[in-house]
Amino acid sequence: MTYSPTALYICTMNRLKEIRESKHLTQEELAEKAGLNYRTIGRLEVGKHQAHRSVIRVLAMALDVHPDDLELDKLEVK
After folding, report:
1. Rounded Cα–Cα distance for residues 23 and 18 (Å)
2. Cα gap 31→39, rounded to integer Å
3. What's the pLDDT tens digit per position in 24-67?
4. DSSP secondary structure string, 13-33?
């Protein structure tokens, strides 16, 4: 089974919000830790912006997770 880039992108943004909230961080706090604007976090979470791999890596570091944890939403890719 393969996934479209759009499907993977949606999973990424859903996981971003889920992980951020599990770490009890606001968008502002995550933005500060990641060196991003808090509006960027909000736009990513609602799908108004797409995250480049470099941004996903920065967000993963700020959230103390592996970048893969943000990307696939625990989906099995065959």
Report:
1. 9
2. 8
3. 999 999 999 999 999 999 998 887 777 788 888 899 999 999 98
4. HHHHHHHHHHTT--HHHHHHH
**What sign for the dihedral angle of Cα 27, 30, 46, 18?**
negative
Overall residue count recorded for the chain in this entry = 78
Q: What is the pTM of this model?
A: 0.76
Task: Name the token pair of 9.
Answer: 């992108």
Model pLDDT, residue 2: 47
Torsion region of 32: left, alpha or beta (phi above 0 gives left; psi -120 to 50 gives alpha): alpha
Three-class secondary structure of residue 5 per DSSP: helix
